[in-house]
Amino acid sequence: AVVSTQTSGSSGINAEYGGGAAAILGGFKAAVECGFKENLHAVLCVAENSVGPRATVPDDVHTLYSGKTVEINNTDAEGRLVLGDGVAFAGKDLQADIVLDMATLTGAQGITTGTSHGAVLTNNAQWESSAVAAGLTSGDMVYPIVYAPELHFSEFKSAVADMKNSVASRTNAQCSCAGLFIGSHLFKDWFTPSPISWIHVDMAYPVHVGERATGWGPAFLLTLFGGFSKSPLLSTLGPVIPSDQASKRPKHDD
User: What is the reported pTM?
Assistant: First the structure.
């Protein structure tokens, strides 16, 4: 069997890897210390990435926590597998009505929104606007990317599973597609209305400068959910919280 690995130029440990989990943990700690009015959970989707007898290899078919099956066509697209389990756990076990996942997910993020702005993908247009506002206020800026699962999720089509774990074409909204893979394990499908508001943040480039971490993320999270905080400062800085959590974004082919 052939195990697909990263090239030497992208191997090793640096500030990029684990930046999403670090931001979630830092934001969670600060939110709790400031006082939070609602139930708040932090799910850290972490795993050791190493070669061994149980390592994932190309053509494996995994059943994720959502119950959906995934054909492995790219072993370097591994982080989204544990993230898919994380959002599924948040929806099924924690009964969350707002699920935000944050990760240094793709190199395509830098091409899509640059080195200063994270990419935000969401099924709720109000939360999209709130995320942009929170980014401008906090300095941890984000910019929306295309949300069109009815046009893009077919990139993961598989003949032997519910989906593959990587896209067929790297020229078709790759950053959006990677986020959609995660979201597909939160929702039954893309066409059944859901009461869950889902916010995906890809921050692969803002999280580091060279080999040093920037600390990007916690300030954004505290500001975005400031309306739920007991802190007078955060509740003032936070954008308006959407009153309706239902997913009502029109489809691009309507």
Answer: 0.90
